[in-house]
């Protein structure tokens, strides 16, 4: 793919398959030497040369030995190696000149649509050039659809594996044919004023469907299902990040395993939560995040007037009368002297 993109901005590119580097080593060295020659018409001795460039899929640590073994020549000045790949995907800056990828765009638009477990279909109109007829040959132009999940709950699948030769996935509908690329989902339009109706998928469903398309059957494990529920309950990885620390996980685990009352005093909990992350300004609102997203509930411990036991009650369960968790008898909230029966 790097070779394909490079050909769009540079005319003379000679691809060398890495698995044939040893067999083609002599040819490559001769090519480099023959192209090391004076620039025509230059009176200052400017030399032309061939650049040896490696695809981004080649690990950096392997470039030096590969180049030295198969491509480096004994001619001084002929060896030129470029370890970086041109950033042709970036927008063209207005303050300098560089190699952009050629792009022909007839129009663009942004469409907002709601997504939920009960409403999985997204409907939108195709984007068409003004100069085309409604009917004609198939695939006269293409729409590139980029999906964005602005809920930050990490439920909607927005990125899919690329397969240019035989795209089997994703399938947003029986007649929806798309090509997943690094730029987005490419849909080839058959006629003007078409309308899309795509059935979106969650991340888990998308991964399972992709594996199924390649003959692999996968089932979500109990641990994976529990993890998925935690991610959804905390509204995405931003919420999960609020307790992504071993000390915080141990703290929450110890609280939930308390036999009588799975609770902890408010200020004590806050201090223990902020202690391991002291100085991390990006996670300074961990307590608020856990409370606002329902991972931690606020409440009070009340003393039963019948059996004198203490039990914890969430705020939404508080009333003038509550039931004891131990003796199951109802008792009145200590309204007159709350300090004696509540903490």
Task: Explain how this protein is built.
The chain has 343 residues and is of the alpha+beta class. It has 4 domains: 2-82, no CATH class; 121-213, no CATH class; 230-292, no CATH class; 299-341, no CATH class. The protein contains 10 helices and 13 strands. A 3-stranded antiparallel sheet has the order 6-8-7, with no helix packed on it. It has a two-stranded antiparallel sheet with strand order 1-2. Strands 3-4 form a two-stranded parallel ribbon. Strand 12 and strand 13 form a beta hairpin. The radius of gyration is 31 Å and the shape is elongated. The chain starts with a helix and ends with a helix. 8% of the residues are buried. The model has no long low-confidence stretch (mean pLDDT 79).
Features of the shown structure:
343 residues; alpha+beta; 4 domains; 3-stranded antiparallel β-sheet; two-stranded antiparallel ribbon; 10 helices
- How large is the share of residues in beta strands? 5-15%
| Elements, N to C (H/E) | HHEEEHEEEEEEHHHHHHEEEEH
The span between the termini is 65 Å
- Residue runs with pLDDT of under 50 for 5 or more positions: none
Brief synopsis:
The protein has helices spanning 2-7, 25-34, 60-70, 203-213, 222-233, 237-240, 246-256, 266-274, 286-292, 338-341; strands spanning 37-38, 47-48, 51-53, 80-82, 121-125, 141-145, 179-180, 185-189, 195-199, 299-303, 310-314, 321-323, 330-332.
């Amino acid at each position: 793919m790097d070779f394909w993109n490079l050909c769009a901005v540079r005319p003379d590119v000679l691809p060398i398959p890495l698995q044939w580097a040893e067999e083609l080593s002599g040819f490559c060295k001769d090519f480099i030497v023959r192209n090391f020659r004076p620039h025509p018409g230059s009176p200052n001795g400017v030399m032309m040369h061939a650049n040896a460039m490696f695809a981004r899929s080649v690990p950096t640590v392997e470039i030096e030995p590969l180049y030295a073994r198969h491509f480096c020549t004994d001619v001084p000045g002929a060896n030129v190696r470029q370890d970086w790949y041109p950033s042709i995907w970036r927008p063209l800056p207005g303050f300098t000149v560089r190699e952009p990828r050629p792009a022909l765009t007839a129009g663009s638009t942004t469409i907002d649509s709601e997504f939920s477990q009960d409403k999985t279909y997204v409907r939108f109109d195709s984007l068409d050039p003004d100069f085309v007829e409604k009917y004609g040959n198939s695939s006269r132009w293409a729409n590139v659809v980029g999906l964005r999940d602005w809920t930050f709950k990490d439920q909607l699948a927005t990125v899919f594996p690329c397969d240019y030769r035989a795209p089997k996935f994703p399938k947003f509908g029986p007649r929806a044919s798309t090509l997943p690329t690094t730029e987005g989902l490419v849909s080839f339009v058959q006629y003007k004023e078409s309308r899309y109706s795509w059935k979106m998928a969650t991340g888990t469903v998308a991964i399972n469907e992709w594996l199924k398309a390649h003959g692999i059957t996968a089932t979500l494990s109990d641990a994976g299902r529990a993890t998925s529920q935690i991610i959804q309950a905390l509204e995405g990885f931003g919420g999960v990040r609020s307790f992504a620390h071993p000390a915080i996980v141990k703290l929450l685990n110890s609280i939930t395993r308390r036999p009588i009352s799975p609770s902890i005093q408010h200020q004590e909990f806050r201090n223990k939560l902020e202690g391991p992350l002291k100085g991390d300004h990006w996670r300074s609102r961990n307590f608020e995040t856990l409370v606002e997203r329902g991972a931690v509930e606020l409440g009070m411990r009340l003393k039963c007037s019948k059996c004198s036991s203490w039990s914890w009650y969430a705020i939404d369960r508080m009333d003038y009368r509550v039931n004891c968790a131990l003796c199951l008898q109802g008792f009145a909230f200590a309204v007159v002297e709350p300090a004696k029966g509540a903490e």
